[in-house]
UniProtKB/TrEMBL annotation:
It comes from the Bacteria. Belongs to the binding-protein-dependent transport system permease family. LivHM subfamily. It is a multi-pass membrane protein. This is Branched-chain amino acid ABC transporter permease.
Length: 286
């Protein structure tokens, strides 16, 4: 099979991880305009939770359930005890505080697990490759695409077909109007913040068998998440999906054409999108 076709398929798999990483960040900003620079740390915690749980004897499938729950619970506590006090402050305080929180989490991870990265094996069921004529592709990457697509559908149903989703979408448009309806936007935000962190933690657990686990992966993830959100449009589910796929495919194809500049190209793509559509591909004018 043509190498570029394989790279596009690889890009779809990577892009779906980027979508899971970025969708919570996008919705959280859309709901209360809260800038969360600790989002990459939740991705980091999800990857290390996957590693730690498997070291304790829990199978990979169990970690996909338990790791995001643990990360979401930690995020809910952080929002409840710390971040909720900062909603009405300027964005500069959001950035400084969440950056400090991210660095604290990173240093705690280094203290406990050390500065050297570790490997997480895929489950036995997903080892090896799928062969279909000339199509040869790793089983785990195919699982990643299919599983992430199902998760994207589940998140879309949550946002479009439930009362919580209606409140989140309305709050992202006019939070003040929602509060006039006697809906506690801050309580909803706490739940959405935890769900967003849980999806980032799940993205970290899914990425662990692909790239391994190391203490500085959260910094890289945060940068990519912001690129995806800016490309797709703040507060947009479809924007996070399209942005994640676009960034993943660009990065994957460029790793063949220009390996040294693969990461650079995603920022160039972001700049081009901003020149043509300053609010992102699916963003609304503010």
């Amino acid at each position: 099979m043509n190498v570029y076709v394989l790279q596009v398929i690889n890009g779809v798999g990577i892009g779906m991880i980027y979508f899971l990483l970025a969708v919570g960040l996008s919705i959280v900003f859309g709901l209360l305009r809260f800038v969360n620079f600790a989002h990459g740390a939740f991705y980091l915690l999800g990857a290390y939770a996957c590693y730690a749980l498997m070291q304790q004897g829990l199978g990979f499938w169990g970690t996909l359930v338990l790791a995001p729950i643990l990360v979401g619970a930690a995020a809910w506590l952080a929002e409840r005890l710390l971040l909720r006090r900062m909603y009405d402050l300027p964005h500069e305080f959001h950035i400084l505080f969440t950056l400090g929180l991210a660095w604290a989490i990173q240093e705690l991870v280094i203290l406990y697990w050390g500065p050297v990265g570790v490997n997480v094996p895929p489950p036995d069921l997903l080892k090896g490759v799928v062969m279909w004529g000339s199509f040869i592709y790793p089983k785990y990457r195919l699982f990643l695409i299919a599983f992430s697509a199902l998760l994207a559908l589940a998140i879309w149903l949550l946002l479009e077909r439930t009362r919580l989703g209606s409140i989140v979408r309305a709050g992202s448009e006019q939070a003040d109007m929602v509060m006039l309806l006697r809906i506690n936007v801050y309580r909803v935000f706490g739940l959405v913040f935890a769900l967003g962190a849980a999806t980032a933690g799940l993205a970290g657990a899914l990425a662990a068998p692909l790239r391994g686990v190391e203490p500085f992966m959260g910094v890289e993830a945060l940068a990519v998440a912001f690129v995806v959100v800016v490309v797709g449009g703040m507060g947009s589910f479809s924007g996070a999906l399209i942005g994640g796929l676009l960034v993943g495919i660009v990065q994957s194809i460029m790793s063949t054409l220009w390996p040294q500049g693969a990461s650079l190209m995603i920022y160039i793509a972001m700049a081009l999108v901003l020149l043509l559509r300053p609010d992102g591909l699916m963003g609304r004018s503010q």
